[in-house]
Specification:
The protein is of the alpha+beta class. It has ten helices and ten strands. It is elongated. The mean pLDDT is 94.
Length: 262
């Protein structure tokens, strides 16, 4: 049998499902709910806490609880990589029309706010081992954040690494003011004669750090997906490594594997 606070929460779930309560609507105050249900304040707060953990409502400091607007879902499929490669050598006029984020969300370029920041760092033991270079090798660390203009949190947190010597022949690849780059990393690497031959993605999950919770605007109990993406050239040499932090409440990952016929 459902507990009292679960029954109260179900009343609100039903109201949200049927449209009686719409995104942005304010819920009655805790005092009003105590009077309505004839239950104690802790019971009401348990019900509201349950709804918040499910992502149905959000609490705004000093203002109360509101029905949460569903965040734009990002649908990532492994087929996106071939899509990116196919467009990497298209004319600039075509490449500038759309990017990987638009591909994954169905949004348009003008719907997005993009930020990039580059800096040079030394390869630590982890990255040195992945790239197959000595520790201390100079890397270009690239941090990317892209968000939907109608929202206040980025879709994910991306940190990408390039070996500086591999890309230094094109100074534009060391300059974050050239971002967003039409055609993305595959086109960038093509400008220095690097063609990607494979991409490996390793996916794990964990609770978010405090920084990730704050930047991604995660609700309590939301996990993050961690993707280590290793891009190799046609000779198998690792040429780019990306670490992605994806919020679990808005990310759908699909892996499609073609199978040869017997």
């Amino acid at each position: 049998m459902a507990k009292v606070y679960e029954q109260i929460a179900e009343d609100f779930r039903r109201a949200i499902r049927t449209g009686e309560l719409s995104p942005g609507d304010r819920l009655p105050t805790e005092t009003a709910l105590v009077e309505k249900y004839g239950k104690t304040l802790p019971t009401i707060r348990q019900a509201l806490g349950l709804l918040q953990s499910e992502g149905l409502i959000e609490k705004r400091h000093g203002r109360g609880s509101f029905v949460r607007k569903p965040r734009k879902v990002v649908r990532r499929t492994n087929e996106r990589h071939q899509w990116e490669k196919n467009r990497a050598r298209e004319d600039h006029s075509e490449r500038v029309k759309t990017g990987a984020t638009e591909h994954d969300t169905g949004l348009q370029v003008d719907d997005l706010v993009f930020h990039a920041h580059y800096r040079e760092v030394e390869a630590n033991s982890d990255l040195a081992a992945v790239f197959g270079v000595p520790e201390g090798t100079t890397l270009v660390e690239r941090n990317y954040r892209t968000r939907y203009r109608a929202e206040d949190a980025p879709f994910n947190m991306v940190t990408s690494y390039l070996v500086r010597d591999y890309v230094a022949a094109n100074p534009d690849l060391l300059d974050d003011t050239k971002e967003p780059w039409p055609g993305g990393t595959m086109n960038q690497l093509d400008t220095v004669g690097i063609e990607l031959g494979s991409i490996e993605e390793r996916v794990t999950a964990r609770p978010p750090t405090a920084e990730e919770t704050d930047e991604l605007k995660l609700l309590p109990g939301t996990s993050v997906l961690i993707v280590r993406k290793i891009s190799r050239d046609i000779d198998g040499r690792p040429v780019e490594v990306s670490d992605l932090v994806l919020p679990g409440d808005r990310t759908e990952m699909t892996f499609i594997t073609p199978l040869e016929r017997w």
